């Protein structure tokens, strides 16, 4: 079977000379590449051209970058793309806004789509916040981090490793926040839940400052729980994994926190098919059987639905049916089959009512502040 062509999103800076872009597209065509979409992004002093390119089988990202450089261009960023990237930016922004209005819990995911960001998280407002959308990191001179503030004071941090944010993109994201505020939709907030025995937790996006808490979570988990999650014998998670666990490329991480402890971790990782993502859960042993995994899976399904995924896929050991039972408790349609020596669990993100102990926004604020 021939290898499947890969699709890439490239941002290219060119000199303002006639035919520069045409020469690049011709060179790409000579390498059996197909330019599927083109958009122009205004930047200070000029523009950046964004191309969505279907590369020939076996062609590497470095080959695309070399083709751009050969015609005098500079590749400002390259990342894997899928069919959803073929939608023009205004249409994608309108669709994301519509999803956020219908489902306020998907506001962070809508912002991530608008910004084509790796992650978008809500953080406590810092003193002296001015509402600027400039980077919140003084060392971030390249513009890979951005800070947005909603009208009701919620601070949103966005991160994108593959290319710097352009001001026009940040303006779109700020406009989305303003639109949600004007329509009475609450800004993105962490969600709260009560366990089956009455303990209060907060579900929120994972962030860079959670490395130590997530390392402690793994240290408190039994070998069995870690083996069921990673399918490998391990006692602690290697330090180099922590950043990837909390900020997976193009993925989503959600943590469940009680006081200052992270007691559970869930992830969504896009698969090769654009409408599917892999889901994984890790719940500390002492918190298993108390509704934490059910609520965490429900939060991940809502995030997946907002991102346009129709199916979540989880891989379990053949004798381990924890994910199947969790999906059933959450009221999610699911199926399973043996594949490659593991149990493949398929969970639909269809608009069924997701059950579980997630509380209202007012309860969220009470728990988060308490």
From TrEMBL:
Composition skew (Low complexity), residue ranges: 124-133
Entries under CDD domains matching the protein: NAT_SF
GO MF annotation terms: acyltransferase activity
Gene3D superfamilies: 3.40.630.30
Domain N-acetyltransferase: 201-350
Domain ACT residues, every copy: 9-88
Enzyme class: transferase
Keyword match Chaperone: no
Keywords noted in UniProt: Acyltransferase, Transferase
Domain of life: Bacteria
EC number of the protein: 2.3.1.-
UniProt keyword annotation of Methyltransferase present: no
Region (Disordered): 124-145
Protein name (database record): GNAT family N-acetyltransferase
């Amino acid at each position: 079977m021939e290898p499947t062509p890969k699709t890439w999103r490239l941002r290219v800076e060119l000199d303002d000379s006639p035919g520069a872009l045409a020469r690049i597209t011709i060179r790409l065509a000579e390498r059996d590449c197909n330019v599927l979409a083109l958009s122009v992004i205004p930047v200070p002093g000029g523009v950046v051209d964004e191309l969505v390119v279907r590369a020939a089988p076996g062609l590497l990202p470095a080959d695309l970058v070399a083709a751009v450089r050969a015609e005098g261009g500079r590749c400002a960023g390259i990342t894997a793309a899928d069919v959803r990237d073929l939608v023009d930016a205004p249409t994608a922004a309108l669709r994301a806004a519509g999803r956020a209005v219908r489902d306020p819990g998907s506001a962070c995911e809508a912002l991530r789509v608008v910004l084509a960001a790796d992650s978008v998280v809500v953080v406590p407002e810092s003193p002296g916040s001015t509402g600027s959308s400039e980077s919140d990191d003084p060392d971030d001179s390249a513009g890979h981090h951005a800070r947005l503030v909603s009208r009701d004071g919620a601070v949103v941090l966005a991160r994108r490793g593959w290319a710097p944010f352009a001001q026009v993109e940040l303006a779109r994201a700020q406009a989305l926040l303003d639109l949600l505020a004007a329509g009475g939709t609450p800004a993105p907030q962490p969600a709260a839940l009560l366990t089956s025995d009455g303990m209060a937790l907060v579900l929120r996006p994972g962030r860079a400052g959670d490395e130590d808490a997530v390392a402690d979570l793994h240290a408190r988990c039994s070998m069995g729980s870690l083996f069921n999650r990673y399918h490998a014998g391990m006692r602690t998670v290697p330090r180099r994994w922590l950043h990837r666990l909390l900020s997976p490329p193009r993925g989503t991480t959600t943590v469940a926190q009680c006081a200052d402890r992270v007691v559970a971790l869930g992830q969504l990782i896009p698969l090769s098919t654009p409408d599917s993502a892999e889901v994984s859960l890790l719940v500390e042993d002492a918190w298993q059987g108390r509704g934490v995994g059910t609520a965490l899976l429900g939060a991940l399904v809502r995030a997946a639905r907002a991102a346009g995924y129709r199916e979540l896929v989880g891989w379990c050991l053949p004798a381990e049916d924890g994910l199947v039972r969790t999906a059933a408790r959450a009221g999610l349609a699911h199926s399973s089959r043996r594949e490659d020596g593991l149990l493949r669990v398929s969970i639909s993100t269809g608009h069924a009512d997701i059950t579980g102990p997630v509380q209202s926004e007012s309860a969220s604020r009470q728990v988060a502040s308490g």
